[in-house]
Amino acid sequence: MKRRSVLKWSAVALAGGAVPLVRAQSPHIRLVVPFPPGAANDTIARLLADAIAKRSRRTWIVENKAGAGSMIGIDSVAKAAADGTTLLFGASDGLAVLPAVRPVMPYDPGRDFAHLARIATSPYVLVVNSQVSARDFAGFVKLANQQPGNMRVATTGTGTLGDMGTILLASAANVELTSVPYKGMSPAVNDLVAGHVEALLVTPTTIAPHLASGKVRALVVLGPRRSPMLPDVPTAAEVGLAGADVAAWWGVLAPAKTPAGALAALRSEIAAVLGDAEFRKAIAEKGFDVAPLDGDAFAKFAAADFQRWRDVARKAGITLKD
Known about the structure:
This protein has helices at about 5-15, 20-25, 40-55, 70-80, 90-100, 135-145, 160-175, 185-195, 205-215, 260-275, 275-285, 295-315, and strands at about 30-35, 60-65, 85-90, 115-130, 150-155, 180, 200, 215-220, 245-255, 290-295. By secondary structure, the chain is α/β, with parallel strands linked by helices. The chain folds into two domains: about 25-120 and about 245-315, Bordetella uptake gene, domain 1 (D-Maltodextrin-Binding Protein, domain 2, 3-Layer(aba) Sandwich), CATH 3.40.190.150; about 125-240, Periplasmic binding protein-like II (D-Maltodextrin-Binding Protein, domain 2).
């Protein structure tokens, strides 16, 4: 195509509407997932990207950028061009929990992002390996009290959601638990199954294969409702644990200075998918709860979750430094 033809096409596009020109400038959306492939974040992000691609004229490309507890990927989006083509598929760990325990962060989860939509949530569940004699949460507390400090709970690292959830659980149940940090969920689950640690806080989806095999048992769901995957397992409230809910959440965010028009268009695309029965079914089949929150409501929710975990961290005296 000659230069004159290109200029003529652009002028026609401007006269007839901005959509062709926008497509020419930004043929795809880059959705950054700050975790490796296969993690819950990645699974939900790909379901969302595929669902939007069916409705949109632009392709949503999932890009995994893991490292430093998700901070590398998150920071890359915070500092990306605010043109509506680079988005973050963020989670509670990097946007609420880590900022709550680290006095110095490379990004500010409130100021550096425009919140587009919360997509899904999942409660954590307390599980024990088959060698632990406790058959319910009351039995777990009794066993832990008989040997203070010997009830070991695996976590994916100090200051992660599982670690802070363990602290919250111990406080609510007035029991002594010992957090054992691992470099990721896979080694934590492996050691739980092998009997090297007694317990773990984890999403139902992650631990489902081992529950089915009988290698681990679920004692309590740390959420307001019973999990569809674990209908016979009581909630925290049902076993007398007030304020002990521990839940992961996932949502889409853009760099803070993204133009209002671009944000509105993105929110509209996401909202259409969140209302789609096929997408909601796909999320539910993976064991997650579709939990839409748009714009300001999502931002307020994330800020409140950050404050909650900061209070837990301060009470426990937990501060992480580089």
